[in-house]
Amino acid sequence: MKVLSSSTLLKAALGAAGIASLAMVAGCASPPNNDRTDIREAGDGFPALEDNWHDGGRFVEPQSILRIREGQSKDQVRQLIGGPQFSEGFFGVREWNYVFNLYTGKAGGDYITCQYQVDFDDDMTLENTHWRDAQCPELLVPTEVPEDETLVLSGDVLFDFDSDQLTLEGRRALERVAQSAKGEFTSPGMTIVGYTDRFGSVEYNLELSQSRAGAVATYLAGQGISRSNIRTAGHGEADPVVECPGARATPSVTECLRPNRRVEITISELAGG
Predict the structure, then answer these.
(1) Tell me, which fold does domain 150-269 have in CATH?
(2) Which residue spans within 121-269 are E strands per DSSP?
(3) Mean pLDDT, residues 18-27 taken together
(4) Are 152 and 258 in contact (CB under 8 A)?
């Protein structure tokens, strides 16, 4: 009878443990499409809070969420808003789920708890995002039309820097604007005016403000607002809301001038509507 040494027995035990560990990992790994139906609530595609571990909601800076863009890597998303709060697998995960606490702005520090979902494509770059409740993105980008019926949206939220390409939350805000206009007016008409800050040439700022107003109009038309009922204009750096000292576009001056970079949408009922 052959007697095994203590070192041989130890190696065998470690090998068995390693195999068992690999089996556990394989059993927990998500398939490439991350089809984890066991953690989905019926109908909306979000995990059920009462059935899954999360940390009770993470307080996050709104500006961090607003910086989320298509094409970002998982590392870039993690740098902005942290890692996902639901365990959805190890390999090939294409969906991250978050629970955020967003302040309402009311006295007393009231906040609401929001579920936010990030989708990644085959290359594991950000493809799209979703909110479970409509009131959550409304806290980030308010779109309620005031009594004078002129809504002011931040150009920094609607567009990437020095661009007329709408952002994720910018598009989401315009979808709410269109929905509200169609609900409140029989035949909504819109006047969309773009503005920039004072940095850059007058000609360039005028062109950028015009193209941004046009981009907003095109998107709203795609949401059911008749394009023939929309007028656009670009006023460049004219009619500033604030005046900020400084001849150079330093971060502090640029931030001070944020209110000037805007898009104004005036909504009215067209005659005969």
Answers:
(1) 60s Ribosomal Protein L30; Chain: A; (3.30.1330)
(2) 126-131, 150-154, 188-194, 230-234, 262-269
(3) 37
(4) no
Fold designation for 37-140: Beta-lactamase Inhibitory Protein; Chain:B, domain 1 (3.30.1450)
Among all chains, which residue has been given the structure tokens 């900020």?
A: 244
Q: Which helix (H) or strand (E) holds 66?
A: helix 62-66
pLDDT confidence of residue 20 = 40
What token pair was written down for 102?
Answer: 């967003």
Prediction pTM value: 0.77
What is the C-alpha separation between 174 and 117, in angstroms, rounded?
Answer: 20
What confidence tens digit (pLDDT) does each residue in 58-101 have?
999 999 999 999 999 999 999 999 999 886 677 788 999 999 99
Listed residue (155, 89, 162) closest to 120, CA to CA: 89
Question: Looking up tokens 């999360």, which residue turns up?
Answer: 54
CA–CA distance, 183 with 29 (Å, rounded to integer): 45
